[in-house]
Give the backbone structure.
Amino acid sequence: MAAFVPSDMVSTNHNNGGVLVVAINNKDEKGQQMMSEEKEEEEEEKKIDYSQRAQWLRAGVMGATDGLVSVASLMMGVGAVRTDAKAMLLAGFAGSVAGGCSMAIGEFVSVYTQYEVEVAQIKNKTISQDVQMVKKALPNPLQAALASASCYCLGAVPPLVGAAFIRDYRTRIMVVLAVATLSLFVFGWIGSVLGNTPMLRSCARLLLGGWMAMAITFALTKLFAFTGLQFVSAGSCKVIGRGMGVVVWELLWLLMVLTSCCEGQFILQVGFYRNTCPEAESIVHGVVRDAVASDPNMGAALLRLHFHDCFVEGCDASILIDVSSQPEKLAFAHQGLRGFEVIQRAKAQLEASCPALVSCADILALAARDAIALTNGPIYQVPTGRRDGFVSNFSLADEMPQVTDSIQILKAKFLNKGLTHKDLVLLSAAHTIGTTACFFMTKRLYNFFPGGVGTDPAINPNFLPRLKARCPQNGDVNARLAIDEGGGTEFDKHILKNIREGFAVLESDARLNDDIFTKSVMDSYFSPLNPIFGPSFEADFVESIVKMGQVGVKTGFLGEVRRVCSRFNS
């Protein structure tokens, strides 16, 4: 019986009058065809001119890497002397725009010069027809410029985005480092794939180079800010030598951060004046001690002065200026501030001993620390190295916390300064010393509700008659009463107990009971197990006051050391 053979597998041959049927193995034919195609692809891959690809690879991928490293390093440099996110973001944005334009111009000039040189060499060796063909193979200067600029700006995006939504300073620095590291690895991988180079070495080169750039920029900017360009004084050699030691430490520390993701302090340091003005802190302490001895309420006044200074333009002594047309101290939120003469007295003694070295901003921080200690509060060390600011205007005090603010507004204002709800509770506890005027009690006692009637229902009924007796309606608004009822003159947590029980004097203090988070912080200091297992109020307060003292500080060339605290140097 004859087998059936499909027509596409039959070949006929009429030689010798016969028909020869040949069956072809279709699978073998397809296998040979696939092997042939694979060989052709391998040959094509071998023919790829990676030297030509390197032209746009350098302008593109390496442009993105330049943008990433440059902008991240610039942001790290600004972060070495400024804690606010706005300064870092503005510097990063300006760096991305300026760098992109610079890369475009530089790449265009470089590639165009190379283009003209190669064309000139080719003309000496080939005919005109060949010249035109070779020209087409040469890199295009305009394309290289556009690729370089756009990729530079693209590379700048990760650190900018990484820092845009982080309020906390230290977290923001760590996020920029992490984002830059991840992006460097990605760019290294892309470069290795497109350039057909070993991936490990490509990534390692970018990572090490990027880390070094960020560490060096951070450390040298810190040195520049640390020395403050003081190269003319007799002690400048000591400052520079000490500054170089700081730079070495900062480089080592930052490299440790990059590899182990540790955190640390970036701006100020304890003992900043140890070598340049070793008696600085003792001079301030002596002046504050004498002031508190003659006026027991001066300790609270100095503590309040430091708080009000830090909450406007940062801790830069802008609250002390009184020579401008509209100085900050005239703002409504600063009513009742005093203690200015104590700061100026300390400054005069420091100028006589260490001229142009100790800033007024540092004097405020040290005076607040000593005021707390002299009222039996915790003793702690103050990081110093602040500079005095160049701006003082009462309109900048609009964001000061007010006694009539709700708890939501208070939390938002503190958060805007990088302070938490816990910091709000602890810094409010500083009201445990000092007094307030009846002027700040009128609304709470007599005009609490819309329409100008009623009393704050949060006031304990047993406490209300006493408050009204001390601040009668239409009475003396300048009469003063203790903020911590029954708390005496010592610095302690007694005021938090009063707030929890409805004995708060200030309305803003009473509002701490209105929020579950702030209330839980207060409760934590009075739990039955607190003496053994609970948090320490004194330790937590120190952490918050030191943290507040680093809000918006100016260092190095970003500020000055005033000769007189009440006026700018020029």
Q: What stands out?
A: The chain is about 55% helix and 0% strand.
